[in-house]
Amino acid sequence: MKKFFGNVSAVVVGNFVTFAVIALVIGGIVLVSSLPSFFKGKGPKDGSVLEITLNSPIKESSMDDEATLFGPPPGTSTYLRDILRSIEEAKEDDKIKGISLRIGTFNGGATQLADVRTALEDFKESGKFIYAYSHNSSQGGYILNSVADSVFQNPMGMVLVQGMSAEVMFFKNLGDKFGIDFQVIRHGQYKSAVEPYLREDMSEENREQLSLILNDIWKNMSDKVMASRKLTSEEWNTAVDSLYSFNPEKAVQYKLVDKIALEPEYEQALANKLELKIKEDESLHEKLDEYTITIEKYAENLKPESGKDQVAILYASGTILPGEGFSGIQSETYKQTIRDLKEDDNVKAVVLRINSPGGSADASEEILFELRELRKKKPIIVSFGDVAASGGYYMAMEADSIFAHPSTITGSIGVFGMMPNFKKLANNLGVTTDYVNTNANSDFLKTPFKPLTPSGLKAMTNMTESVYSIFVNHVMKARKMTYEQVDTIGGGRVWSGVQAKKIGLIDAFGGLNDAIDAAAKKAKLDKYSIVDYPFRKGGIEEFMAQFQGVKSEAFVKEELGEDYYNLYTELKAIREHQGIQVRMPFNVKIR
């Protein structure tokens, strides 16, 4: 009996502790959710400078946020549109006299960099100043800093402007060494998504398309820097090839920066520009700090966009996957969101913002169907980010118009299928398998320890060709081309935005704001507000669902470091490549 009551007491105490913990967690979430409004910063003083650092990764929507328990709830970060709106607002704000760029490493993509730089160029038309200071800058950081009227460089700092390169990782030798046979079916000579599993190096076709893309992106960036720094093409290429930016004195000599200065000297230059009067008993740094507002704080005070009529931005970032959730573009989540947009009478137009290399063919088709139904009721304008390739391009086939940057990577109209066979690896480890089947292909796509039969291979090939035909027909209808025209520019080949416009894969150059303007015009809206979709709930449910995965990924990244973590994710992606895929034709790191 004593033992019985002891067990009962333990259960009661355990339940009490559990409920107490849950109450604390929920209370914490409520408290954290209220913090952004509680600590909302004050606006700038008269005669202030807007400081932009962009030290954190640039996110586009709450879908880019990670699941955290006590961190800021989804939707409270400073997103790309907040940055662009802040710069636009500062242009007309009489309290802001100029901008101070203090950008080291730019943690964003090429199209995000272009959008921010365009906003800064537009800001300069107001006649207000832009100064830039750098200790150590990445190439992207310098490209932004170069828009400034004066670029200051720390004497011990380094700026590495060196051009662009692309690195592709290959796994054929790994498969040969450990006994993994990658069984591949593909359509198109440029469908090089599977090259890493079949080759030790790039094919000439892949090298050709990568070279064209890199040179288009680099030329677009270079032209902007040369215009800002008043450099000839010869001067710029000499400076880049010789790594003159790496040496502060050489950087000044070759007009990459204007002045070598310590940070207090830069602060004095800013104070002079702001016409601040510094008393003898005052600190220059503290005085300047009073008249400096960060772009994050400035964004908190932006006026809400008003209007009952809404333009919805549907953010689609990451790999296209079947299922439900917030990791990538999961079909069930996006299908329901698109249905909600169709039925919401306040939403008059939709901007589909795509940043995706593609993924599941089936999921891509399901999402496209829902977009087709939505477009019957409301206009859809598509905005491409850094990558809108293969399945990412597939989703754009229900659009009134497509906007992209010259630096966007798009196209990749092609299909592949892959089934890794681990039979040899298992045998080498002393593991064997045997089978009992009722039919010739009862184990088709069910086991990784047996190669495809001839009939199974034929079935995969036929399915691949069928999906490719469906893909091409979608493009034919959307872009008003013949099958031969699409097939010529298809075959899995990827294109830069520059080339995509020439061959008719996109309609116009422009960023997210241009797409929003086009959507409002198409819907005949004068006054409207912007709403973001999908809605990410956040809180304890999402956190608990994703906590283990998020924690594990963060641990692996911390332990391995950036480069080895990328290798880990590449190997992990092999599992995702099984089945029919409409995916960008390579995993490439551009830097």
TrEMBL record:
Ranges that cross the membrane: 12-35
Native source species: Moheibacter sediminis
Record keyword Plastid present: no
Gene Ontology MF terms: serine-type peptidase activity
Protein name: Protease-4
Taxonomic lineage from the root: Bacteria, Pseudomonadati, Bacteroidota, Flavobacteriia, Flavobacteriales
One of the GO biological process terms: signal peptide processing
Family indicated by similarity: Belongs to the peptidase S49 family.
Active site residues according to the UniProt entry: 191, 390
Keyword match Heme: no
Keywords assigned by UniProt, alphabetized: Hydrolase, Membrane, Protease, Serine protease, Transmembrane, Transmembrane helix
